Amino acid sequence: MHEAEAMYPVTNCIVAPEKSMPYAIGASFYVKGREKFDNHVESSPTGYRGLSHREIGDWSDAYPFLLESPGVHLDQITAAKTPELIIDGIDPFVLKAGEKGLLFVPYDENGFSMDRRVGQHSSVIQEILSQWTKKNPDRGFSVSAARYAEIVENGLGYYFKDPAEADSRKVYYQ
To answer: What is the pTM for the complete model shown?
Structure first.
């Protein structure tokens, strides 16, 4: 799981080598059609040595995927790099760039919150596993976790335990 700038073409996507491509394509179609968020597939470049999704795919039996969600806090054109920008993903300069057609993702005044980015990754991972299971029922997965719409609706905090209510012997602060 990864994040990329909104001004970078390889965002809101699944990057996959050839052998992982059928699962990536199936997952992308599903989340676009059913869950209504943009996601496309990019081929892992064969000439770029050192990329984990390329090397792992070429030199092992693993089926790697790189998931990229839009992290506008990474864009060079943003205002101050604040914790709020990382959490809510709202920036006036990125919005202006979007209005001028300079972004590779749809972007509006709602931004790309961490809830949306984590929700996107959750849905894509679950759908890749579902696609795998359909094609490999003897080696399938059964996963039940919150998906995009639920995470956006509830917010990430809903899924965390309050450290104040936890057993103090199991809570560590740095």
So the answer is: 0.89
Q: pLDDT band at 161, cuts 50/70/90?
A: confident
> For residues 124 and 143, what is the distance between their CA atoms, to the nearest angstrom?
12
Beta strand extents in 5-160 (DSSP E only): 13-16, 40-43, 66-70
List the one residue out of 73, 57, 49, 59 whose CA is nearest residue 24. 57
Backbone angles phi, psi at 135, to 5 degrees: -90, -20
Residues whose CB is less than 8 angstroms from the CB of residue 77 and which lie 6 or more positions away in sequence, other chains included: 7, 93, 94, 97
List Cβ neighbours of 153 (8 Å cut-off, separation of 6 or more). none
The CA distance from 164 to 155, in Å, is 19
